């Protein structure tokens, strides 16, 4: 691996995304910090240093993705961190499907859109890492969690996308994995025991796996967990 590669982190202006960007930066990478708000992206990048580049990017908008990536250069590492949880306490039998659609648009289709934009270049260059930030609520062994049905369904589908992309890119030098970071103390879960920095390390580890690392796995801590 060269001294550094270029990593793009979505939802990188705060919380877990910013912590992942900071970890990758500390490992020597050039980091693109993507966020919907230009000012927030610039403020976050300014906290890291000269190898940090702000990107104004909305993962739900193809035109926004195209504009942001037009001048970004080659991207070697994609961390699909942008996500929403809008349905805590809802029931799957009564939740408004518009809320489900909004959740899927960010958590699933946003990650899918980013992968479609960046995977071809990774494959062409023979090296790449894609990390989809998932959840224990996406595991059939532990969930899905009925108290957040849209979120659970979106992350379960994201795991399926991980497996499919890993199969598609097998043998190309590109590794695609999901990571369950556990409960993280962010705006989404202010009561969680784990700091963003603690959780970020595991995501950054997955983003910098060696060539013989796993692909198509659901990573948790130092190991894997069942789908």
TrEMBL record:
Residues 207-227 are annotated as: Disordered. PROSITE patterns: ADH_SHORT. Pfam families: adh_short (PF00106). GO terms for cellular component: membrane. It comes from the Bacteria. Keywords: Oxidoreductase. One of its GO terms (molecular function) is oxidoreductase activity. Belongs to the short-chain dehydrogenases/reductases (SDR) family. This is SDR family oxidoreductase. It comes from Streptomyces roseirectus.
């Amino acid at each position: 691996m060269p001294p550094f590669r270029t990593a793009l982190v979505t939802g990188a202006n705060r919380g877990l995304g910013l912590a992942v960007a900071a970890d990758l930066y500390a490992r020597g990478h050039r980091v693109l910090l993507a966020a919907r708000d230009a000012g927030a992206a610039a403020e976050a990048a300014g906290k890291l240093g000269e190898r940090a580049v702000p990107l104004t990017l909305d993962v739900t908008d193809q035109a926004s993705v195209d504009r942001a990536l037009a001048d970004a250069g080659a991207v070697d590492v994609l961390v699909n961190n942008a996500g929403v949880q809008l349905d805590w306490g809802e029931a799957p039998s009564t939740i408004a499907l518009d809320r489900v659609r909004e959740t899927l648009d960010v958590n699933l289709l946003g990650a899918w859109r980013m992968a479609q934009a960046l995977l071809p270049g990774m494959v062409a260059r023979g090296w790449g890492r894609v990390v989809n930030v998932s959840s224990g609520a996406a595991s059939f062994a532990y969930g899905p969690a009925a108290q957040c049905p849209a979120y659970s369904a979106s992350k379960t589908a994201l795991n399926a996308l991980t497996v499919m992309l890993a199969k598609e890119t097998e043998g190309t030098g590109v590794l695609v994995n999901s990571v369950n970071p556990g409960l993280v103390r962010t705006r989404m879960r202010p009561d969680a025991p784990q700091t963003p920095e603690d959780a970020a390390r595991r995501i950054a580890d997955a983003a910098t796996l060696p060539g013989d690392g796993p692909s198509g796995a659901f990573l948790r801590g130092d190991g894997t967990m069942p789908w």
